[in-house]
């Protein structure tokens, strides 16, 4: 019996969804080929899925965000397909597109070479701060959070570099934890215990959202005792003893008991050749089909999630991208098995509407959906209560949103379109 493997690199939101989709819909629809079995192998550095969305609250208080709500073992979520699914705790170190193999270093240090018939790269991103990046062990990240939580109550000055969602949410959670909530209709805490400063490199926070929403976010932060510095970037942060000295782009320096670097993300692509990457070190792909078309990539390679060049990032975007990748993967595999020309592609259209929600503390928040501002109470109702854990966490690890295949009707190829295909 020959085994053909759909290999998924990365076990966070995109990778988990792709693996479930392949097992439930892609493999069952492939033409039967005598003596061949199709399987899915998922490779991830950790054996657990971490609910990264809740990080800003989790770093502050394990009581408010307990670990049994934010960590989920990956392998048991695929028990329904145990004969077709393999989980490997490890890290990709090299991809050979010509030979269609991926080199893996397992958690125990063993070196493996995994052949594949199709490859999905969903390795995601890492953050500059260790508080928001999961490594090989859930215990390591939990220990990092525990150490932070021990130091936080004594902090008098906290500086956060970066004013994207993670920076803003963290500033709100930390300021409320240290300073408490303001009184009724209060514009600031009554007896603030700490100075919390958010450093924003642009003229407004939360780049996806309009300036008026950023201004509302600043008001909510001010009510919790957090201030925002605009048009200034962190040049360096040097720790010495219990203090960190932060040098800013305007030449000034600040001293903090705690400094959090939330200045952006880094794609997890160090195992790939530079020619596979764009100028931001993300995996370069066809922006419509999400195939990796670099010559050395070889056939049937796709990218999903924040690691891809096609996306501005975020979990919401993946709902549009995953069906595209999985449909095109199925189309390509059917052609591979049958020897016939592949069918029409499913195409991805980015949703560039103003769409993001951002809790600020435990009772306020800002955001927009579909280009329309969302009231603070709605932000709290959707995300602020528990950072979407009750709504989405278990379903994400179990792949519940893909129990049914996302319907798609191929568009007929016109005569002009056919001529274009023939001449291409």
TrEMBL record:
Lineage of this protein's species? Answer: Eukaryota, Fungi, Dikarya, Ascomycota, Pezizomycotina
What SUPFAM superfamilies is this protein classified in?
A: FAD/NAD(P)-binding domain
UniProt cross-references to Pfam families, sorted A to Z: Pyr_redox_2
Q: Name one GO molecular function term.
A: electron-transferring-flavoprotein dehydrogenase activity
What is the protein's name according to its record? FAD/NAD(P)-binding domain-containing protein
Domain FAD/NAD(P)-binding per the UniProt entry, residue ranges: 6-308
Q: What Gene Ontology cellular component terms go with this record?
A: cytoplasm
**Which keywords fit this entry according to its UniProt record?**
FAD, Flavoprotein, Oxidoreductase
The family classification in the record reads:
Belongs to the FAD-dependent oxidoreductase family.
